Amino acid sequence: MFSGSIVALVTPMTADGQVDFDSLQQLVAFHLTEGSDGLVIMGTTGEAATLSLAEQHAVMTTVCEQVAGKIPVIAGNGAMATSDAIEKTQFFADLPIAGYLTVTPFYNKPTQKGMLAHFSAVAAVTDKPIILYNVPGRTGVDILPATVAALAKVPNIVGIKEATGSLSRLADLQALCPSDFMLLSGDDATFAEFMLAGGHGVISVTANVAPAAMSAICQAATADDVAEVRRLDGRLQALHRDLFIESNPIPTKWALWRMGLMQSDFLRLPLTQLEPIHNTIIEQALQQAGIQYQDRN
């Protein structure tokens, strides 16, 4: 259902902080051409936390209309409060999305019992598939494999984006969850090994700037071509690392702006634009990946 290279898409903004729909359409066209297998809209990388529900809906509408069913469009619906996650899920219900990406509640650090109840409540208000999203470094809470296995029994909870970067965590999930439960990496630096170990794909930040390469790695991993996976992924390791040299999506938006795919690298506060001291580092990572960029000074 959801596999391969799925892009955690940025939300382009104009220099005055409005959503840049022209650049958004340019990015979507880029991914359709370059072979991405899906788009996640309004996740962490999409700066959902700083956009109103109306803005989020407008972005998703634009993307869905342009994609026109060619690849899955997945909507981020996570929230700190269960009631807010339910509201977001229902607010996006009229859109032709393929499913939802639902992050663990952040900051308030619920127990495993609380997360079981949270995800079950969100799943109950939609018939669309839900992918769990576990990213302890962002949320301060870790949904454990036993809890994931319990949630896998909910008919429309179909997979997890696992961003701990732990291959032993993958093995635990494989042992406890049904074979058709989608196991997606959320950690670009380790995703290639994750897929070689039996994972089904990745929801990726790196795929924003290197979609064709990320797709090729996924295809090679599916074919169990270990040498090709490691050859291709070796070229991207600097990107995997350096796109997080500042908080995501700061470096990614700067890279896309330098690639000529966005008019601006603006982010809404509290995020700010890339510090100039890091410009050369991102340029070198792009060069290592074979990605061309423009001089926009």
TrEMBL record:
Sites binding pyruvate sit at: T45, I203
Q: Top-level EC class, please?
A: lyase
Q: What broad class describes the main subcellular location of this protein? A: cytoplasm
Q: Give the positions the UniProt entry annotates as the active site.
A: Y133 (proton donor/acceptor), K161 (schiff-base intermediate with substrate)
Q: Which InterPro entries match?
A: Aldolase_TIM, DapA, DapA-like, Schiff_base-form_aldolases_AS, Schiff_base-form_aldolases_CS
Q: Which reaction does it catalyse?
A: L-aspartate 4-semialdehyde + pyruvate = (2S,4S)-4-hydroxy-2,3,4,5-tetrahydrodipicolinate + H2O + H(+)
Keywords for this protein: Amino-acid biosynthesis, Cytoplasm, Diaminopimelate biosynthesis, Lyase, Lysine biosynthesis, Schiff base
Q: What is its EC number?
A: 4.3.3.7
Metabolic or biological pathway? Amino-acid biosynthesis; L-lysine biosynthesis via DAP pathway; (S)-tetrahydrodipicolinate from L-aspartate: step 3/4
Domain of life, per UniProt, equals: Bacteria
UniProt record similarity statement:
Belongs to the DapA family.
- Name of the protein this chain belongs to: 4-hydroxy-tetrahydrodipicolinate synthase
The species is Alishewanella longhuensis
Which gene is the coding source of this polypeptide chain? Answer: dapA
